[in-house]
Design brief:
The chain contains twelve helices and ten strands. It is an alpha/beta fold. The strands form two sheets. The protein has a five-stranded parallel sheet, sandwiched between helices. Strands 7-6-8-9-10 form a five-stranded parallel sheet, with helices on both faces. Helix 6 links the parallel strand 3 and strand 4. The longest helix is centred in the middle third of the chain and has 36 residues. It is globular, with a radius of gyration of 20 Å. Bound molecules: 6-O-phosphono-alpha-D-glucopyranose. The site of 6-O-phosphono-alpha-D-glucopyranose (G6P) has 16 residues, from helix 4. Keywords: Aminotransferase, Cytoplasm, Glutamine amidotransferase, Repeat, Transferase. This is Glutamine--fructose-6-phosphate aminotransferase [isomerizing]. GO terms for molecular function: carbohydrate derivative binding; glutamine-fructose-6-phosphate transaminase (isomerizing) activity. It catalyses: D-fructose 6-phosphate + L-glutamine = D-glucosamine 6-phosphate + L-glutamate.
Length: about 375
């Protein structure tokens, strides 16, 4: 077992460090750098069907559901098609209103989660074609799907999902770009720029791993005894805040919540006191107007927390000289286009949860009461 961990203390840490490769492997053979074209040859859904689809309906559970929420931002932004995201366990019982020309999507690392398979059956029964994003080749979900985008992240052993999540985000980004190209909602130059940015991402994740590991270990020394944590983000970073909170809950048993930063004033502000650590995703894509606006709004949310003496840990972009003075600790990540930033900001959140759990003496790879795949309802 020690050998399988490749020198790492836990599978989870090994898998966090495997993310550059996982992301690269997900893109392998699916992109052309010269033309910016995305190839998803595994689709048994025609271009016409993609053009006519009024909506994409996604169902998933746990971490895969967070990937789905981030995917909604990617698909809506690039392909201008509405996306609805459901918990698989809710989808199957809420008698959803479905247009049979819509495309169904299931996101599942294992491909065997009972609720997700049931949601797929529900979609098929309502006449939808379904696409699976799945990590395990030949899994149940793939057998029923009209196309599977395998994530190729390699086996994930740690119960808390890390590299599978990054590769799901990558697959969703590829799918969003593919759809945008099919539906003509993106120019050739934009495609080339985004594909190029995607290929640079593994190197940037490596950079985050190099710097954030030690930084998060230090943070863990300060915050491992906290009783609660808040994670805040706006836009596509909101699902990442949810994922950061889930990682901490799963492996350290500390209560944590993810919130859209703008919602603080409608409740969570009441929780803030001098003992509450608040992790804020405050990155920005300087070239993107929406992203800069989101950043400005996030800064005011940070001030709302510090004014109530909450402790702020910010994840910010390299070169941001403003934020250091406003918060207690900052972890910097490299620059990237807005839709790809989640693949960088999630890494310090995974490492923070990991180091806190280790300090608390928790069983990181096999947290109590949880299973890697939940094949019963
Ligand atoms: C379990 C695992 C989670 C995972 C979820 C969905 O709860 O502990 O890590 O996100 O199932 O699993 P799936 O295989 O469908 O992605």
């Amino acid at each position: 077992i020690q050998a399988e961990k490749g020198g790492y203390k836990h599978f989870m840490l090994k898998e966090i460090f495997e993310q550059p490769r996982a992301v690269r492997d997900t893109t392998l053979g699916r992109i052309s750098l010269n033309t910016g074209t995305v190839f998803l040859s595994e689709m048994k859904i025609s271009d016409e069907e993609f053009r006519d689809a009024p909506r994409i309906d996604i169902a998933a559970c746990g971490t895969s559901w967070h990937a789905a929420l981030a995917g909604k931002y990617m698909i809506e932004r690039l392909a201008r098609i509405p996306v609805e995201v459901d918990y698989a366990s809710e989808f199957r019982y809420r008698d959803p209103i479905i247009d049979s020309r819509s495309i169904g999507m299931l996101i599942t690392q294992s491909g065997e989660t009972a609720d997700t398979l049931a949601a797929q059956r529900e979609m098929l029964a309502k006449g939808l074609k379904t696409i699976a994003i799945c990590n395990v080749v030949g899994a149940m979900v793939a057998r029923e799907a009209h196309g599977t985008i395998y994530t190729h992240a390699g086996p994930e052993i740690g119960v808390a999902s890390t590299k599978a999540f990054s590769s799901q985000l990558t697959a969703l980004f590829l799918f969003a770009l593919y759809l945008a190209q099919t539906r003509n909602t993106i120019t050739g130059d934009e495609s080339i720029a985004l594909v190029e940015a995607l290929t640079r991402l593994p190197g940037k994740i490596e950079e985050v791993l190099r710097t954030a590991d030690l930084a998060c270990e230090k943070l863990a020394r300060v915050y491992s005894t906290a009783r609660d944590f808040l994670y805040l983000g706006r836009g596509i970073h909101y699902p990442i805040a949810l994922e950061g909170a889930l990682k901490l809950k799963e492996i350290s048993y500390i209560h944590a919540e993810g919130y859209p930063a703008g919602e603080m004033k409608h409740g969570p502000n009441a929780l803030i006191d001098g003992t509450l650590p608040v992790v804020v995703l405050a990155t920005k894509d300087g070239a993107n107007h929406g992203s800069r606006l989101r950043y400005e709004k996030t800064l005011s949310n940070i001030q709302e927390v510090t004014a109530r003496s909450g402790k702020v840990i910010a994840i910010a972009t390299e070169g941001d000289e403003q934020i250091g003075d406003l918060v207690d600790q900052v972890i910097y990540i490299p620059q990237a286009p807005e839709l790809l930033l989640p693949l960088l900001d999630v890494v310090p959140l995974q490492l923070l949860a990991y180091h806190i759990a280790v300090r608390r003496g928790c069983d990181v790879d096999q947290p109590r009461n949880l299973a890697k795949s939940v094949t019963v309802e």
